[in-house]
Amino acid sequence: MLGVAKIATEKVIPAMQRGRFSDVVAIASRDEGRAREAANALGLAAAHGSYEALINDPQVDAIYNPLPNHLHVPWTIRALEAGKHVLCEKPIGLTAAEAGELIAVRDRTGSKVQEAFMVHTHPQWLRAQSLVHEGRIGELRSMMGYFSYFNRDASNIRNVREFGGGAVMDIGCYLIHTARMIFGAEPRRVISLVERDPAMQVDCLASLMLDFDKGQAIGTCSTQAASYQRVHVVGTTGRIEIEIPFNAPPDRPCRIFVDDGRTLSGEDRETIEMPIVDQYTVQGDLFSAAVLENGPVAYPLEDSVANMKTIDAVFRSEEAGAWVTV
Description:
Number of helices: 9
Order of helices and strands: HEHEHEHEHEHEHEEEEEEEHHE
Structural class: alpha/beta
Number of strands: 14
Oligomer: single chain
Strand content: 25-35%
Shape: globular
Radius of gyration: 20 Å
């Protein structure tokens, strides 16, 4: 584990430790004391006082990179060059061009690299995809998503513009990723409306519209609103609602509601409960299995670059105040 980020120490590491194929053996921090404290708390064998020491540790096969956004590409490249496989937190880079640099390094080194969009392999999203493909809601027409939380702390890395902070990079990327999943395509053009915090200059409220060949996706994300998330997928004869689409609970079933639209109240809707899983355990095991079996990763870099191209378009639309092509 590269760094002692909260998502790593509180969510990802404990989840991977429960996996079948992942053995978490070491953690690094630029402060060796913090690394040792985290290692002791999590029962890890090794603690390193620098990122370099971790990526050069011969006992380590793969790196999980949850560093601040602007450090994703440079440290992923260093790890790949050191012969390690890398599972890197989202967003994979700050721009599509930066993310694209990883493809050449991956191909040259032969190591695996994957962006950690844990929703991509969660059973509730796989089920939602299959329901759409089976025609359960008729022809897919639109998708609507909302994702928000409140954080106005200027010292938090999510609110530092030069570190890749802001709502779109942190949570709007999920709205884009899952829209591409459900439509199974790339949007042709994008329009966005973005509000920036006057002091921190990060985007704190953003609404997006993605134009696909077969329909539209709209989404709003905010880092300065009440915590909430929901996704609706609407077709010509029905609707799918994903109750907790992104921070899926690891300790109780996730629920998907399928409604045929016969009543506006949805009283006749079907409730589908998914088996209890930890999405970080699933993600870690699938990545480790790809390494062990030398198979494809669940979410290839080419898709990561495509997602970043749409994010790039969101910010170009903000500047232009108009539709832009992806």
